[in-house]
Specification:
Largest sheet: 5 strands, antiparallel
CATH topology of one domain: N-terminal domain of TfIIb
Shape: elongated
Distance between the termini: 54 Å
Number of helices: 1
Bound molecules: zinc ion
CATH architecture of one domain: Single Sheet
């Protein structure tokens, strides 16, 4: 029954209860968060995500990291150099 809410009298609800972290609930949000925290392992700079190519590019180092099955391969050894004619 949603119609019984009283406003303005300082009703003390369960504070902070709805801010509990639920890990792995929404994969798309998770993915965005994931991308936000991903940095180039070499320069710790930001990476550019290419959804079509499934790659992450660091323009600072001109290295391109591949994403294999949703798992970015964040290894400098595995990264491929960005061709010289490409730019951000
Ligand atoms: Zn870098």
């Amino acid at each position: 029954m949603p119609s019984g809410s009283v406003r303005g009298r300082g009703v003390s609800g369960p504070a902070g209860a709805e801010r509990a972290a639920v890990p792995g609930r929404d994969t798309s949000v998770l993915k965005q968060d994931f991308l936000d925290i991903l940095v180039c392992p070499k320069c710790k700079g930001k990476l550019e995500y290419d959804e079509g190519e499934q790659t992450l590019t660091c323009w600072e180092c001109r290295l391109r990291y591949e994403i294999d099955d949703d798992i970015p391969i964040m290894l400098i050894d595995k990264a491929k150099p960005v061709p010289p004619d490409e730019s951000p």
